[in-house]
Amino acid sequence: MIRPEKGHSAGKGIIMQNSHAAVSGDNQAVSSTVKLYLWAAVILIIAEMIGAVSIPLGPGKVVLLPMVWALLLGAMVGIASRRLPGSIGIDHGIQLRSASILQPALLIFIAKLGLVVGGSLPVVFASGWALVFQEFGHFVGTVVLGLPVALLLGIKREAIGATFSVGREPSLA
Question: Which stretches of the chain score pLDDT less than 70?
Fold first, then answer.
């Protein structure tokens, strides 16, 4: 029986195979990240091409901004990914990765929104008591009235999120 010399063992081939698998796994991760960013760019371009859509509703109007279209398009791509070919579809792992990227991106967006609103503080102060009463109504309506009713209906943990104020964005930042 011939024994392999030191450094020339059969185990070395296994190590090479594992390192090749790790490299191909890294290439797959890079290609899935590129695929994620390409889908995001396509969705962004389509949403910006649609633009803001105003819907007249009684005395006012509802404005659907491109962010709403991007959200709807992203949901449609996620749902349709099961039927798309593997090379362009987005699997569940990529969707989870995009959710982890979305959270810090929204934090930056909300911080920017807070900075933009900060420049309009004189206008906010000029509106006077109207905003004070509006925020008081948000507090009274949601916490004092909505939370007890939700708890009486048997809604436990969800009641906290459901009765959180209408203006959640500044609170999240």
Answer: 1-30, 162-173
pLDDT of residue 22: 45
Beta bridge partners, 54, equal 63
pLDDT of residue 164: 64
SS3 label, residue 163: coil
Q: Do 73 and 44 contact (CB within 8 A), yes or no? A: no
82 alpha-carbon distance from chain centroid: 20
Distance CA 50, CA 44 (A): 10
The kind and range of the H/E element at 102 are helix 92-118
CB under 8 A, 24+ apart: contacts of 160-165: 165/138, 165/139
Separation CA 29–CA 25 (nearest Å): 6
Instruction: Fill in the DSSP letter of residue 164.
Output: S
> For the chain, which residues make up each domain, given as ranges?
12-108, 120-173
Give the pLDDT score at 3: 53
Distance CA 40, CA 92 (A): 16
Q: How wide is the angle at C-alpha 64 spanned by C-alphas 59 and 70, nearest 5°? A: 170
d(CA 152, CA 146): 10
